[in-house]
Amino acid sequence: MKLLFIIPEYPPCSGGGIATFYSNLIPELSRQGHQVHILVGSALSPAITGYQVDKLTVDFLNPQAVSANIARFNRYNAIPEFQRHLAAAWTAWEQVNRSEGYDLVETTDWGMLFTPWIVSEDSPPTVVQLHASIGQIDFYDPQLDSQLQSSLIRLLELNLLSLADELQANSQFNAKTWQHLTGRNVTYIPPMLSCQPAIKTLEKSAHGLVVGRIQHWKGPTILCEALRLLGAKSPIIDWIGRDTVYRDSKTSMSAYLTQTYSDIWGKKIQPLGTFSPEETRQRQAMANFILIPSIWDVFNYTCVEGMAQGQTVLCSQGAGSADLITDGVNGLTFKVGDPQSLANSLDTLLSWSDAQRKEIGKVAQETVKTKLAPAKIAQQRIEIYEKVINNGRFSTRPNSWLVDAVSPAKPLEKPLAFLDRLPLRELSNYLVKRSLKKFLT
Questions:
Q1: From CA 113, how far away is CA 129, in angstroms rounded?
Q2: Which CATH architecture has domain 208-372?
Q3: For 119, how many CA atoms within 13 A lie in the half-sphere containing its CB?
Q4: Which of 106, 128, 215, 270 pairs with 6 at a CA distance of 20 to 30 A?
Q5: Lowest-confidence pick of 192-201, 256-265, 423-432
Q6: What is the tens place of the pLDDT at every residue in 192-228?
Q7: 310 Rama sector, left if φ>0, alpha if ψ -120 to 50, beta otherwise
Q8: Does the fold of domain 208-372 match that of domain 2-192+380-431?
Q9: pTM
């Protein structure tokens, strides 16, 4: 098959679960003889030079072309981030020559890069892999100054994805979520993980470890509450990951945690910043245990990476990877968003002997090896691809209103004319406050 992937990140442009997912999947598809072309990019991508490895071609979205396309969406000047997402999606469509000549296209739900492939009549059959859409992320971590964009994107995502040729999810939890939202069947196929030899460490840390952005839905507040409940029995936990903004975009999540949990954040939980993938993996191997406190997560590779290392893993039931854990057999889970449940599970974990942990780690390794085996998962996906190609496009096509809402158009002569509908006094007051803020900072 000749396959085209339109994805927001792929090495060397990586930083999250999407890159991990595809850096495991795509080389395996190439090894099995399929011709694969990847276009990597999003509304925020820098200029990067493409490369080729065997039958795998990797190109990157042209940011200058994205900027040039923004004018075709100037009717959305009031929502600049959304405007740029649409410009990036249609730039991708143009950069791959409307995907002409490919048997199948796969894209993701993040950044609305799926848009042209759903609304265009001449697209090849398209798979949308559901990793975590902009609308989903905002639902679990809303930003107070972007509610207009968030509501619009969720409505458009729902209507567009309901008409995709094929929807796939890598966790049962997310498959059920989108099946409920769209009324469509969503195919569940677990991700693959290329098992590397477990790192042998000369020393073992006494600290637990969380790897993930310091972000509300990654569960730092739940962890702080749980450690308060444990009191003197609470362990020290290291946190690897970058800081993010919280709620009003004026406060960082770490600053909020320092203010709200001054007895925990920076003391019992120690934010370490970010590290290279190699050093992060080393620290995962050295940790006393691996913890995933998320209040929501489509999958979360930290869980299975820890399991593959033979570590004891404690995972929130709000993370899709919790599907792979049987309590007390190959790890532990706790109730999502429940500090007391997390505290109880931490107490249980800390009571286990070294022999118990070693046995649980061995079973965890075997779970990853058998359930996420690359050759097995790749074959499942190939069978679905062939089925999608044979079935062709989804029978119900987008209506003209929906197509018009997300398609490029002739630029408006006065794209800021919507401001005429707002009271001049409010605009003037806001402009003065914004100018003062910029001057003072």
A1: 11
A2: 3-Layer(aba) Sandwich (3.40)
A3: 23
A4: 215
A5: 192-201
A6: 998 766 677 768 899 999 999 999 999 999 999 999 9
A7: left
A8: yes
A9: 0.93
